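If you are new to this repository, start here. Below is one unmodified record pulled from the training split, so you can see the exact layout before writing a loader.
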Amino acid sequence: MSEESSELLCPEALEARLRAIGAERYHDKHPFHKLLHGGQLDKGQVQAWVLNRYCYQSAIPRKDAALISRVHDVELRREWRRRIVDHDGDSDGDSGIERWLILAEGVGLDRDYVSSTRGALAATKFAVEAYVRFVREKSLLEAIASSLTELFAPAIHRERIAGLLAHYDFADDRTLSYFTKRLDQAPRDVAFGLDYVLREARTPERQRGVIDALYFKTDVLWAQLDALYHAYVEPGHIPPGAFDPALVDPGTDPGADPGAET
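And here is the target side for that same chain:
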């Protein structure tokens, strides 16, 4: 944090500060995403991204449930509950997680293998669980502020949809339905979250907390891509037990490593 953050910012200045974090540190700038959106990843590398990203997608409802469990305000609980419904759905086949598994099948992965997360990188799991713990343990204001990477999500979704459609045979309206759905959901969610943060961050200390929360969340997203890049773009760095396109047929469930924790 810089010294200037010790001053109390007006809501407009605080919003500008938060948006500047995205301009500097959001993961759309990561080299892995540049390769993905530019059609420069092979099938196995795309599969690794879909598999590992599932860990994050499936953790979002747990993260939001942890947040809701601390909320005494009925209206806030009701509003935040929609996020869980978006990802878990109200019924089978109508959820963000299901749409992600459709993408997984589209790139040739077995959905049971993906949902087990057995082949995901340890670094991915550590980063995701750090986010869940952050939301569970930090102040409610900081927990809500950490969701504000949604400010920057529609742009990356539009870029991703265009890039995948242009470069990959698996991409179509069905396999990319997760991203098209989020084009409507993310702006709705962030409008509420941003309004809450700007209204409740009324002291320099609280403002520093929300700024640091957004820094933390961008680090969580960036760390996941660092792990993917190290394992699958730089050759020879896939850790034991992780998904390896050269060793398994990802169209079937490779089964659990008998010595691995699940």
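Two things worth knowing about this chain: The mean pLDDT is 90. The radius of gyration is 19 Å.
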